[in-house]
């Protein structure tokens, strides 16, 4: 019994250390990508910042591009933390707009146009197979949860299923981010994009569904 417990403890400790090392690589990459730009950050820079060997790096990631795509994990941690503190008694559209504003501010101030553009290029090239906007994303799951609750409370239309509406919202947000990148980040992302999303959300209101039936 004791040997089994010791074996379980060692396996758990090893898994913890592996996750810690992987997280150090992600944190180092985020810091360097933001400071120096993705293209100007070398593998050696990341290894030095994370105090990691090249062999260990390849245990977790196959290439620098894969590390870039995996940064969605760091983003989702921020979104999850923010959503936990949102007042759930607020209306669904209010919650969506709060999340939108946080995301836009986070992307523009802590990620930056150069790094965000590199993320999109990596996604379009499809070199790593990681879907930055996939349904496994916590950000997408949060939007889906808000939409579901909004439908249950009669705030959001129900003639379209929640997955379709959530996908539409994500697509609208993504278009705002891409437009900002194409404009070289020359305007305040949240200030310009939030009013556009507010206008688009009118079409998701349950009132629109009622008008359609009349």
Q: SSE string, helix = H, strand = E?
A: HHHHHHHHHHH
Q: What is the radius of gyration?
A: 20 Å
Helix tally? 11
Mean pLDDT: 86
Q: Could you say which structural class the secondary elements and strand pairing correspond to?
A: mainly alpha
Helicity, in percent? over 70%
Low-confidence stretches: 6-11
Main sheet: strands, sense, barrel: none
Our measurement of the CA-to-CA distance between the termini, rounded to an integer number of angstroms, reads 71 Å
The 3D shape can be described as: elongated
| Beta content | under 5%
DSSP strand tally: 0
Structural key phrases:
214 residues; mainly alpha
Structure description:
It contains eleven helices and no strands. It is mainly alpha-helical. Helix 1 (2-36) crosses helix 2 and helix 6 runs antiparallel to helix 10 (189-201). The longest helix has 35 residues, at 2-36. The termini are far apart.
What is this entry, summarized?
The chain has 214 residues and is mainly alpha-helical. Helices cover 74% and strands 0% of the residues. It is elongated.
List the helices and strands and how they pair.
Blueprint: H1 2-36, H2 43-50, H3 54-60, H4 64-69, H5 72-84, H6 92-111, H7 113-125, H8 138-152, H9 162-182, H10 189-201, H11 206-213
Helix pairs in contact: 1-2, 6-8, 6-10, 7-9, 8-9, 9-10
